[in-house]
Amino acid sequence: MLLGPAVLGLAWPKAQSVLLPTDVLGPLRDLGHAGLVLFLVGVAHELRLDASRLRDRAVAWTALGTFVPSLLVGAALGGWLVWLDRPSLRGTAPTGAFVLLVALALAVSAVPVLARVLADRGLTATRAGRLSLTSAALVDAVAWLLLAVVIAIATPGSKGAWTAATVLAVGALAAALGRRLLRTPPAERLCARWPWPVAVVLGLWVLLAADAAESLGLTAIFGAFVVGLMIPPESPHWDAPVRRVSTLGLWLVPVFFIATGLRIWTASGGIPWLVAILATALAVLAKVGGGYAVSRLGGEGHAAALRVAVLLNTRGLTEIVLLQAGYSAGVLTSGLYLALLVTAVVTTSMTGPLLSLIDRRHGTEATSAPRENEPIALG
Localized where (predicted)? Predict the structure, then answer.
């Protein structure tokens, strides 16, 4: 997003027109968009919101503690931007959609990045790791659904919240029925015997679902999200096809960022640094403060509560995709997009150094794999 239009453009102003002429940009955007939805199937599948995990009271409390304060602070930031009424920041989107999208941008956590951080640091089986990852999955599931509401409200000609509510209900029913069907022995045997053809069919299915979601006035992300939730999380046979589809999407995601960067930097007059700094400060304060407070109330020690709070402050690709969906729907201006992009990058980049600081001051957390069906009790 930076190198092409920003850095390369300074050294060679005609670089975009020479390297990426107008007739190439359209297919480039389509290819990047396809890569994004394919990648998000794996993200939704990795949420793994099965009933056994959601029975842990600590997960619900931690998710609320990190989601609600961030959502309220983000809504306050969105309200302030509406009151400020600067066209470069506010745009012309409906107020409800605008405020809710800004709130979601501050409230999300990035499950893929968080999972990789936990794996790299050997924290996956620790109490803080399990608690933060499952809470982040719950938060992101709610955020993706609310994003569909935002897009429906902002889409001209749609029936707004009624359309969103109907499609969300149908999507939830389809995900539940699809998961039950794919869990049957014939489907499992088919997947185990022909994983590559199943992966091809799954990829086509995702693209069709994404296109259907867009035709209904929602974001294509919602279609990918529903298909990802259909895949049984406990089945080892489905992991391989999902991983192949998601890996193909991951290879194409850089194309998505190239196309986005060209569009954003061309339309933007630069980064509004005051808004970027304010949004980042509020995001860190709400997410870290809320996560720490609830963890302490739940009986966690000082160091463990800090780890949970810092881990949940990771926003990464989840926020960037949410911002892109909002920008494409006309909810965000290019200037506000860049300001919130700074928030996503800063809050993600600070996770590693803060975890290292906690380890130096309080020692590393011992890995303790939980017994089967052992709950994480609150208090």
Answer: Membrane
